[in-house]
Amino acid sequence: MLYIFGHKNPDTDSVVSAIGWAFFKEKKKEKAKAFRLGKLNEETKFALKEFKVPFPPLLKKSQNKKVCLVDHNEFQQSIDDIKSAKIVEIIDHHKINLSLNEPIFVLTKPYGSTSTIIAEIFFQEKIKIPQSIAGILLCGILSDTLIFSSPTTTEIDKKVARKLAKIAKIKDIKLFGKKLLEKKS
Ligand code: MN
Ligand code: MN
User: What is the Å distance from ligand 1's center to 90 Cα?
Assistant: First the structure.
């Protein structure tokens, strides 16, 4: 089984991209499950509840497990025993700082969120995204880009967000984004 998780002190992008990627793996008939490395913040809880997605379980150990890191690639940001895990995949939108002993699957793009990278793969591979997954991935984009206002925002983030909003039946992206980001405080 593949254990998929984002960084410590999880934010919305790290949690929903793990869930999105686990769903993608499921579609590919691969055994995978999403986890979190810490307490969910109020914004993330709101996002998951809004689209009726269950909270991912807490992962305490990664020793000897096959893992996929999403939304981070530095060991300090990962689970404490990450050096004893078998990292097989990394999907991230941050600066890459890797030193690995083996070739692995690494997917990075300079987008505003990991959720954008994952949603784009669904679209490219023409895999149908259910409303719930579309909704939470949209939350990942809105959260990381601060509703497209952060300097990391790209045109792809906006385009992907519009497509996701349509599937998630969110009519007013900015209004929904405000409701989401309000929960942070
Ligand atoms: Mn993050
Ligand atoms: Mn992120």
Answer: 13
Tell how far the Cα of 18 is from the centroid of ligand 2, in angstroms. 11
* Share of residues in the chain with pLDDT > 90 (%): 95
What secondary structure does DSSP assign to 119-168, as a single string? HHHHHHTTPPPPHHHHHHHHHHHHHHHTTTTSTT--HHHHHHHHHHHHHH
In this structure, which ligand is nearest to the CA of 141?
Answer: 2
Q: For the whole model, what pTM was predicted? A: 0.97
Q: Cα(74) to centroid of ligand 1, in Å?
A: 12
pLDDT digits (tens, 9 = 90+) for 3-20: 999 999 999 999 999 999
Segment 12-47, tens digit of pLDDT = 999 999 999 999 999 999 999 999 999 999 999 999
74 exposed, middle or buried (CB, 10 Å; 0-12, 13-18, 19+)? Answer: middle
Which ligand has the minimum distance to the alpha carbon of residue 37? 1
